[in-house]
What we know:
Elements: H1 3-31, E1 35-39, E2 45-48, H2 50-55, H3 61-64, H4 75-91, E3 93-102, E4 108-119, E5 125-134, H5 136-158, E6 164-166, E7 172-175, H6 177-190
Antiparallel strand pairs: 1-2, 1-5, 3-4, 4-5, 6-7
Amino acid sequence: MRSHDRSIVKSKTKTDVSQKTEERFESIFAASPCAITITDLKGTIIDCNKAALEMYESTSKQNLIGESAFAFKSKKDRKRAKENMTKALKQGTLRNIEYTLLTEKGTQFPAELSASVVRDSSGKPMAFVAMIEDITERKKAEKTLRESQQKFERLFMRNPEAAFYADAKWHIIDIKSTFYSTFWIYERRSQR
């Protein structure tokens, strides 16, 4: 086989591999349950998946593509988001940053964003890819848990009786001061 022919075969093989890789990426992008947006280096949305459309309550990609990603962040988070974009450009990635985002209609919701810089074959930054998760349910669960803990602590501290509480393995977590005084009195009486 001549070197020219080998070169053509290698080139075709690289093209086939590249095409399969791109198809695989497109399949993952489309099927991901996580909202994914791709923006240029200025923050303009250039692509998004179906999960992103659902999260932003948008009916069409065309409603998001061309818009600034900052337009979907609450006003209080926009400056921080721009600062984080600069950090991501320098560091290559950002992970688990919480923002208040906006749907297309302006409804606010809490979200967690992780982003990475996409580089071209020479290593030059060309875009950002962000994975975004609506954390509304997690925030509700955290609030419920906090309220439950506060209620338990208030009941525990207001209880006039000697008390302690322990975990499932009977490791003591907290003891009220009345427990000590009651135990001391009990211990003194038992010595008589």
